């Protein structure tokens, strides 16, 4: 059975006010061509379909176009919601879409019913586990000992009653210990978000979303597809690809990467203003660092005439190097500790009792966790 794994589409994403919608339609069209050439039995989309929980009308229209193309091809597709998605919005009309071969993760209710496909080697069972927080699992189970993502995922997988004699595939959207971030993911505070790879030991392939750099974690069959496009200049040097998985008999898995070429490349340049004006015109997405000691008035406006997709301009000279940038505490600190240190460094004083109480309330609301 052939599977194509992608993730972290982030439809509707913007960077420095640059909309990726045209780039996203282009890369989704290239993914369709990959499917036309390789004829996968199923497409796996491992979360963060949208960039925000309340997507724009244009983002919804783009996903609708992509899903319509999949339906026209009678392409079996599995989709889960990620941390950027609204689980309820992703699950909307899921029962209706099943008739067209589009299987969407429902809002998690404590159980996951697998979808079964068959080939010459027998059954392949697909488990769709959307992004899951410990607070959700505590509320569902009443188990107050579930305090970490590791606890939540272990409980969720333990409830799946997996038949190890058949081939099993999991789609999930979490941060697995050892995964390398690339700069465009949300910052995780501390280690409470980590999930050990051993939790996924009963699956023949685990299709991960959340980290934007394609990589295996723990073992080759626990794989992040990465985002199909570069969404941060920290990713400028990375290449992007989709993951093709071939499942033969139980225990025989072959994985290959299929390169994805973007509509616009992303690059970081460094040099003097004069050197930049002598670079050939390009529509690449650019981050330029100027090294001149004397700053050029409206440098970004002048350079954007030559490089229309210059998204970020900064200087690296004696003045900027002399500017002290306060370092935050280790990521092992709690969210409240990090914010308190940031507040003190920015304002030269500590928060008062009312400010601290307000922040504690907001952090609990955002993280859904104790602080």
Short overview:
With 371 residues, the protein is of the alpha/beta class. It is built from 11 helices and 19 strands.
Kindly describe this structure:
This protein is of the alpha/beta class and about 375 residues long. The protein folds into two domains: about 1-260, Purple Acid Phosphatase, chain A, domain 2, CATH 3.60.21; about 265-320, no CATH class. About 30% of the residues lie in helices and about 25% in strands. The chain contains eleven helices and 19 strands. The protein has helices spanning about 20-40, 55-70, 85-90, 95, 135-140, 150-160, 275, 300-305, 320, 335-345, 355-365, and strands at about 1-5, 15, 20, 40-45, 75-80, 100-105, 115-120, 120-130, 165-175, 175, 195, 205-210, 215, 220-225, 240-245, 255-260, 265-270, 285-290, 310-315. It has a six-stranded mixed beta sheet. A six-stranded mixed beta sheet has the order 7-8-9-12-14-13, with no helix packed on it. Strand 7 and strand 8 (about 120-130) form a beta hairpin. Helix 1 runs parallel beside helix 2 (about 55-70). The chain is globular and about 70 Å long. The model has no long low-confidence stretch (mean pLDDT about 90).
